Request: fold
Amino acid sequence: MKHIIILTTLILFSALLNAEENKNIDLIVKENSTSIKGDRTANYIIEAFYLSIENIIHIHCSGTKETKLYILNTYGDIINSSSSYCGDIESSIQLDVPDIKGKYFIVIESPVAYAYGTFSIIK
Reply:
């Protein structure tokens, strides 16, 4: 019985750690209506997650076409950037984040949409 309690405790503790490792970044997304011609219902996905164990930002996107990603510090300096083409099939993009504690911004630009959000490094 003692082994079951210890095992259950370890499983719950592991689940709590995993929840802390992967944090969804709430993005504010604005559709770029001037670039969408014909069909006004653009189908795209933009999601961002901060993975603290790996120290990366993981972005899922599709339908955004040529997509540029930026991580900025509170002074507006670009810390890291990348670009990728995100067509109809969902793509994943990863960006390294700095090791320095603080608040950072992520900006995602494409012809279809513009998104931004914040995340904090607390290690």
About this structure: The chain has one helix and nine strands. The beta strands are 22-25, 28-31, 45-51, 56-62, 65-72, 78-86, 91-96, 102-109, 113-121.
